Automatic annotation (TrEMBL):
<dbReference type="InterPro" id="IPR045304">
    <property type="entry name" value="LbH_SAT"/>
</dbReference>
<feature type="region of interest" description="Disordered">
    <location>
        <begin position="228"/>
        <end position="250"/>
    </location>
</feature>
<keyword id="KW-0028">Amino-acid biosynthesis</keyword>
<keyword id="KW-0012">Acyltransferase</keyword>
<keyword id="KW-0808">Transferase</keyword>
<keyword id="KW-0677">Repeat</keyword>
<dbReference type="InterPro" id="IPR053376">
    <property type="entry name" value="Serine_acetyltransferase"/>
</dbReference>
<keyword id="KW-0198">Cysteine biosynthesis</keyword>
<dbReference type="InterPro" id="IPR042122">
    <property type="entry name" value="Ser_AcTrfase_N_sf"/>
</dbReference>
<protein>
    <recommendedName>
        <fullName>Serine acetyltransferase</fullName>
        <ecNumber>2.3.1.30</ecNumber>
    </recommendedName>
</protein>
<dbReference type="GO" id="GO:0006535">
    <property type="term" value="P:cysteine biosynthetic process from serine"/>
</dbReference>
<comment type="similarity">
    <text>Belongs to the transferase hexapeptide repeat family.</text>
</comment>
<feature type="region of interest" description="Disordered">
    <location>
        <begin position="264"/>
        <end position="319"/>
    </location>
</feature>
<dbReference type="GO" id="GO:0005737">
    <property type="term" value="C:cytoplasm"/>
</dbReference>
<dbReference type="GO" id="GO:0009001">
    <property type="term" value="F:serine O-acetyltransferase activity"/>
</dbReference>
<dbReference type="InterPro" id="IPR011004">
    <property type="entry name" value="Trimer_LpxA-like_sf"/>
</dbReference>
<comment type="pathway">
    <text>Amino-acid biosynthesis; L-cysteine biosynthesis; L-cysteine from L-serine: step 1/2.</text>
</comment>
Length: 319
């Protein structure tokens, strides 16, 4: 049984590491394999209730290999710890079959209680160098954790996560007939961009579209084209009165500001009358303008009624 597992481990290393040249080289020169072999000696003792001797074996393995695996951890078959330096696997961690860990990986706990406090890695997981998987979370089958990622929550099967904290950047199909392609260091190199960079790019594109819309509205206003309330433009309609100082007798223009479009409410638009100042003096006629030069915008009198005087109302009530 033990030798069959050892042959599996050696075959796995030869398959996943192109630098491995022979079985003898793997057996004598791969500290990750030595750490796994030592754990297979200490773990049964831990399960039988022994405490000191398993911890001593674990400590010896750490000194010799640079890999610290608590004897209480559960390791599956064909585990490959590549480069095997600075790897830490906590007491309640569970590692499935065909898992690959690189140097600097930590499967750590985030609490002080004695229950389940370390992560669970399902079959086929790859954790890149420096990856930190913390807490009683689950990394789904065939998932990939990128180099230096910090994983604080569950990762779905077939997902690739990168960053601090880790974010999903890709998901692959995982089932009995489809297995994810082996990905060295668990880090994608085929055009995957950082999620934050993608978000910033999306915001920049949106701002560009808004700027183009504002320019179009300004062009329409400058050309005197009618706009719509949905566009946020100013609508202009002919009025019914002559303007002051207008020798041609042309009708005033009544401009409606789309208040509802600006404020997102159902309020009625406020009509404004465009009046032309025909000179320095006051205008004449019903549409007379205030003194001054140039065109002016004035509210229609009918749109702004004058409230009654409270003092007059009290006198009338006393009679």
């Amino acid at each position: 049984m033990a030798f069959a597992r050892l042959r599996e481990d050696i075959a796995t290393i030869l398959e996943k590491d192109p630098a491995a040249r022979s079985r003898a080289e793997v057996l004598f020169c791969y500290p990750g394999l030595h750490a796994v072999m030592m754990h297979r000696l200490s773990a049964p003792l831990w399960r039988r209730g022994w405490r000191f001797l398993p911890r001593l074996l674990s400590h010896i393995a750490k000194v010799l290999t640079g890999v610290e695996i608590h004897p209480g951890a559960t390791l599956g078959r064909r585990l490959f710890i590549d480069h095997a330096t600075g790897v830490v696997i906590g007491e309640t961690a569970e590692v499935g079959d065909d898992v690959t860990l690189y140097h600097g990986v930590t499967l750590g706990g985030t609490s002080l209680h004695n229950g389940k406090r370390h992560p669970t890695l399902k079959d086929g997981v790859i954790v890149g160098s420096g990856g930190q998987v913390l807490g009683p979370i689950t990394i789904g089958a065939e998932a990939r954790v990128g180099a230096n990622a910090v994983v604080l929550s569950d990762v779905p099967s077939g997902a690739t996560v990168v960053g601090i904290p880790a974010r999903v950047v890709r998901r692959d199909r995982v089932d009995a007939a489809h297995h994810c392609e082996f990905q060295a260091y668990g880090t994608p190199t085929d055009g995957i961009t950082d999620p934050v960079a993608r978000t910033i790019t999306g915001l920049t594109d949106h701002v560009g579209r808004l700027a183009a819309r504002v320019e179009e509205l300004e062009r329409r206003l400058a050309a005197g084209l009618p706009g719509t309330a949905a566009d946020g433009a100013i609508e202009t309609a002919p009025g019914g009165h002559g303007s002051a100082g207008d020798d041609t007798g042309e009708a005033d223009a009544v401009t409606t500001l789309p208040v509802a479009a600006l404020h997102g409410t159902q309020a009625q638009p406020i009509p404004l009358r465009a009046t032309a100042g025909g000179g320095e003096g006051p205008g004449s006629g019903p549409g007379g303008a205030a003194p001054g030069n140039g065109d002016r915008m004035a509210p229609e009198a009918a749109a702004l009624p004058t409230p009654p005087d409270p003092a007059v109302e009290r006198r009338l009530a006393g009679r």
